[in-house]
Amino acid sequence: MRLLLVEDDVMVASGIKLGLADAGYAVDWVGSGERAQEVLARESFDIGVIDIGLPGIDGLELTRLLRRPEMANPAMPVLILTARDALQDRVQGLDLGADDYMVKPFELPELLARLRALLRRSQAATTAVLSFGPLELDSANRRASIVGTEGAAATAIELGPREWTVLEYLLIHAPKPVSKDKLLQALTGWDKEITPNAVEVYVSRLRSKLEPHGIALRSIRGFGYRLELVEATAR
């Protein structure tokens, strides 16, 4: 998942970015509302975390601006962070387009849980468990498994951090295809530490783990990849 963090305090931003990166998010950070507005006009993110107390354009105004139709993703889920605890601030933030609100200081596990809830809501999902055929991905507990049939025990699938990111992104959008560029952004954001060809490596690893269980990861020439059930495609 690609996340935009808008926070002017460098130490706070560094801590949040580290925690979110450890949880599998590709985090891009900007320190002002003006910079965030520029970025959001041309780049799409899966979710945003915005501090209210920004210099210049504050977080409330930024939230209002990013909902404009000319923005790259005006429907992006937004969680507001702030040291303010006044009811009016919370009401104003939600009325301007924020989807959730957290008051500083906060605990990282709660932030992660709220982000998962916002992502589920944006994808019309009702549970932290993503499923496709016999495959289940428990995003809250970071467990992947193949559900057994007729009372058989589930089979765990071991995934590396980037394999997890690719599979989670494919599952969220299944059965629709996902472009290779989107997968690369979900893996790295602005930190281009891997090449586009590396996406093919993670896809290949996933294929070897999923195909024995009847799940295919199909290549779409010139675009990207899509999850399919082998039984369904055989018919």
> Average pLDDT across residues?
87
Q: How much β-strand is present in the residues?
A: 15-25%
Sketch the major β-sheet.
5 strands, parallel
Helix content: 40-55%
CATH topology of the largest domain: Rossmann fold
The CATH architecture classification of the largest domain is 3-Layer(aba) Sandwich
Characterization of the model:
With 235 residues, the chain is α/β, with parallel strands linked by helices. The protein has 2 domains: 2-123, 3-Layer(aba) Sandwich (Rossmann fold); 129-229, Winged helix-like DNA-binding domain superfamily/Winged helix DNA-binding domain (Arc Repressor Mutant, subunit A, Orthogonal Bundle), CATH 1.10.10.10. It has helices at residues 10-22, 33-42, 59-66, 87-95, 108-122, 161-173, 180-188, 196-210, 230-234; strands at residues 2-6, 26-30, 47-51, 78-82, 100-103, 129-132, 135-138, 143-146, 155-157, 178-179, 215-220, 224-229. Strand 7 (135-138) and strand 8 form a beta hairpin.
